[in-house]
Amino acid sequence: IIEIDGTSAKDLDMGEALKLLRGAPGTKVKLKVLRGPEQASENALKTYDFEIVRELVKIESVVWRKLDDGVGYVRITEFSAKTVDDLVEALKQLKVDGAGSLVLDLRNNPGGLLSAAVETASLFLGEGKLIVYTQGRRSENRQDFTAGPKAPYSEMPLVVLVNEGSASGSEIVAGAVQDHKRAVVVGQRSYGKASVQSLIPLPDGSGLRLTVARYYTPSGRSIHRDEKHKIGGISPDIAVEITPEAEGKLYAQWETIYAKDKKPRSAVKPEDAIRDEALDRA
Question: How far apart are CA 54 and CA 27, in angstroms?
Answer without folding.
Answer: 6
